[in-house]
């Protein structure tokens, strides 16, 4: 078992670290406060190749492996988890799905632009009545000549108001249940496609999360991904990879919490000594570091399995389940270590705590991850 990174992987990690510190860190707190989308930073991420990292070069991407992607998402999320999830959605849920299952026409028209960062994508599966029960799609799509006509509502959609294209799951035949759901590429500005509501959130506040409404929205038949009835399979396969991205985001939040705690504990004094000299605090830091390293290994294992073309769904579920738990615990401990300062916005650990919780919820709750893991070990 080789635990060494390649020169390319280390270069990607360093590039992401430098970008995060120079481009994201100065405005992260302000954007969180104002709930402002990091438009310029996302554009620069595209220019650096971070928005289509695993897409082949012939389709406009960087042609990198999933391990490099995990390293980059961790470094970005260590500074700004909002930017981390924007990057993760475009890479894992949009680009990967289109490269794997899209037509040549879709790859040429959309994937190349998405992978290069000239377009931004969103993934619309969740509905008011279809969260963990993703097969219960109320959004419908009926065939009308050369078009499909979409009607329905999606909610909790990351990148929803800023995306140029949205992958929308809709029922083309409700009588078939899960086998009657299909996936469509819907362009921003399509008649009948409206951003209905922007959510006010606890964390990842500079990432836009919105509801989307479709009313007699006509989508060209060429924008059907693969075939009718493939939508749920498309969503589940895509979410397997998406969970690696969210696990890496959680890992970044946890690592950021640890680094902030280490810095503070060396600077803060009590009873005439830096608090880092007290064993009670040392034990907190030791447990944080151990749990984070375990989460990192789970993330890298899932990424490596994906790169090797092996089944990786259960490994991705384990990585997301554990890394998200570690993120929340590490951020909470960081607040405790900072004492009263941890509870105010001058110190960024309170943002880490608010950002961490969503990693246990989106792209499959922790409960859903346990279902996936249990099924894999009981088969």
Detailed description of the structure:
Helices cover 52% and strands 15% of the residues. The chain is α+β, with helices and mostly antiparallel strands and 379 residues long. It folds into three domains: 7-120, Acyl-CoA dehydrogenase/oxidase, N-terminal domain (Butyryl-Coa Dehydrogenase, subunit A, domain 1, Orthogonal Bundle); 122-230, Butyryl-CoA Dehydrogenase, subunit A, domain 2, CATH 2.40.110.10; 233-378, Butyryl-CoA Dehydrogenase, subunit A, domain 3. The chain starts with 6 loop residues before the first helix and ends with a helix. The model has no long low-confidence stretch (mean pLDDT 96).
Question: What is this structure, in a nutshell?
Answer:
Helix content is 52%, strand content 15%. With 379 residues, the chain is an alpha+beta fold. The chain has three domains: 7-120, Acyl-CoA dehydrogenase/oxidase, N-terminal domain (Butyryl-Coa Dehydrogenase, subunit A, domain 1, Orthogonal Bundle); 122-230, Butyryl-CoA Dehydrogenase, subunit A, domain 2 (Beta Barrel); 233-378, Butyryl-CoA Dehydrogenase, subunit A, domain 3 (Up-down Bundle), CATH 1.20.140.
